[in-house]
Amino acid sequence: MLSFLAELDDGERDAIAELIGGALDVIGDAKYFGKLWLRDAETTAWHVQLASRRTHETAEDRERFFEAWGNA
Hints:
By secondary structure, the protein is mainly alpha-helical. It has 4 helices and no strands. The longest helix has 22 residues, at about 30-50. The model has no long low-confidence stretch (mean pLDDT about 85).
């Protein structure tokens, strides 16, 4: 998703935003609402990408951190 969005030029992004906005069937500027939807989709994709990189912190991890911090 992120690589697809990154490769879009402004014209392509506007066309996709207008298409999505029209499909949302809301009153108002279709391109505006489509751009909001695309921005939200991109933000969500980044959150998923970054969340998958986090390691799960355990009590042992915290203890090792505090020990290392105290020894620094």
